[in-house]
Structure formats: structure tokens, C-alpha cells
Amino acid sequence: MTEHQWLEGTDPDPLLDHLEQARRVPWTPAGRRKLRLFACACCRRIWHLLEEEDRQAVGLSERFADGRASRAELEEAHVPTNRWALERGVLFGRVLCAHEAARLTVLPTAVRLLARGAARMAALAVLVQLPAPMRGNWWGPGPDPRAALNAAERRAQADLLRHLFGNPFCPAALPFGCKARAATLARAIDEERRFEDMPVLADALEDAGCIDEAILSHCRDGGEHVRGCWLLDLLLDRS
Fold first, then answer.
1. What pLDDT digit, counting tens, does each position of 159-172 carry?
2. N- or C-end of the chain: fewer Cβ atoms within 10 A?
3. Nearest partner of 225 among 205, 201, 196, judged by Cα
4. Is the pLDDT higher at 229 or at 146?
5. Distance CA 126, CA 5 (A)
6. How would you classify residue 10: left for phi > 0, otherwise alpha for psi between -120 and 50, otherwise beta?
7. What is the pLDDT of residues 203-213, one digit of tens each?
């Protein structure tokens, strides 16, 4: 994969392939953490479809990624989808797909599989929101609405990977002193999910002497921010 393909890719699978084949990031504790947080971020994109227990599972997985929950808690929280569906009488549909995405995040092992699986189930949960006649073969006029929805969701997931891993071809570096002056704000944004304050963080970094356009634009571009953001991790010495 080239740097251009990484920056412009619209499907998360080739990006995940590159990370795995490069054997640099996902095989480290930091990489496994980010893959788990990627799975959680995919679930947060379908937050409105998740039941309360699913949301709790996603939150637990995020806490585990940051060392604030135990493996035993993950194992206790994991409920196989078939058992969950049988107990509730839920047929295949967006609720079941959303539940499966959330349940995958609390698997205690195999973060590569849970990252891909949660992403695919989250995308499927989006697709099955279409009216029933549109879920099968598309014979109507114009483009297939399923293809457009799937492409949009997969593009958003690719953006999430870039948000979490940054640009592996050109890792960012902060000028001396920036971390000390911006770490408190970065920690508050991360712990309290105050991602709307990212432009404020850009101002603080600029005041501290940062002129790196990739760093400043990352804070100010208005894109989706999630826990595990490469810049917040850099400021908090997590990467």
C-alpha cells in the first residue's frame, strides 16, 4: 500500500490488511488497544440502534482497552448472539446486527477479528434499516441505494482508522514543550469525550509553538473524533 492509498482509501479492509502485514502497530499493546477502540467506534456510529446493555458492553470494552476493566469482566459481559436472539425472539434485522457488533467488542481476544467483524456488522445494521423491498435484489430505477449506503459507511470506517492510527507513512512529531502545555486539556477531552473542544486544543498547541499543519488541521477539520485519536494518544504518551 502507498501513502496515497492509505490517505484516500474508502474501504477499511485494505487499511487493516496493511496494518497487519506491516506487523508494526497491531501486534503491539498499543495497536491491539486501537483495534479494539476501532470496533467500539464503529458501534458508536450505530448508537441509536443499540440496546442499553449493548451500550454498556461497548463502554466496558473501551475501559478494558485503557486498562480500567478486567478480562474477567469482558468474559462475563459476552453473550453469544444466538442465545441473546433466542431469549428475546429477535429475528434477523438491524437490532440483531447491531447487537452482534456490540457483542464482538467484548471478546477478550482476537482483536483483529473483532475489529473486522464489528465494522461489518455495523455496516450491515445500517443497510437493514432500508425498507424491506430494498434489501433484496434491486430492480428499481437509478443506482442501488444499498451500494450508496454501504459505501458511505465503509468510507466513514476508513476515516475512523486514519483517525486512530494517523499516517503510518509519516508519523507526526510534536515540538519540545507542546506535550507539557497541552496534556491536561488533551486528558480532559479524552476522558470526558469532549471532542468538540479539539479546535481549542489546536489553539493551545499553536500557542505552544506547534506549526505542523497535519496536527492543527486534524483538530480543526470538523471530522469525527473518537477515543484512541492518534493526536490525543501522542499527547498522553500512549503511542
1. 999 999 999 898 88
2. N
3. 196
4. 229
5. 26
6. alpha
7. 999 998 898 89
Amino acid at 117: G
Residue 142: the pLDDT is: 60
Query: Are the C-beta atoms of residues 201 and 186 closer than 8 Å to each other?
Result: yes
Query: What is the model's pLDDT at position 30?
Result: 81
Non-local CB neighbours of 154 within 8 Å, separated by 6+ positions: 10, 11, 12, 119, 123
User: In the chain, which ranges are continuous DSSP H helix?
Assistant: 3-8, 12-22, 29-44, 52-65, 71-77, 81-88, 94-105, 111-127, 145-165, 178-192, 198-207, 213-220, 230-235
Angle at 97 between CA 96 and CA 98, to 5 degrees: 90
**Rounded to an integer, what distance in angstroms lies between the CA atom of residue 56 and that of residue 40?**
11
The secondary structure element, H or E, covering residue 9 is none
Q: Which amino acid is at 195?
A: F
Residue 62 in grid coordinates: 473501551
pLDDT of residue 181: 85
